[in-house]
Amino acid sequence: MIRVRRAETLGAVRSETFELRCHFAFATYQDPFHQHDGQLRVLNLGALHPSETYFLGAEAAVDILTWVQAGSLTAQIDDFAPEVIQTEGLHLISTGSCCHTLGWKAGAEGTSFLQFWFLADTEEGLPRQESRKSFPQADDGGFRVLASGFPEDDPEECGTITDGAPVTLSAGVRLLHATIRAGEGAAYNTTLARDLYLVVVSGVVRVEGTMLNAGDAVAVRSVATLAVMADEQAVVLLADVAAG
Question: Which Gene3D superfamilies does its entry note (predicted)?
Answer without folding.
Answer: Jelly Rolls (2.60.120.10)
